[in-house]
Amino acid sequence: MTMPTVVLASKSPRRKHLLEMLGIPITVQPADVQEIPLPREEPEAYARRLARDKARAVPGSVVLGADTIVVLDGEILEKPADAEGAVAMLGRLQGRSHQVISAVCLISGGIERQAADRTTVTMRPADEALLRDYVATGEPLDKAGSYGIQGPGAALVERVEGDFFGVMGLPIRLVLQLLDEAGFSYRFGQAPAP
Question: Is 67 a catalytic residue?
Answer without folding.
Answer: yes
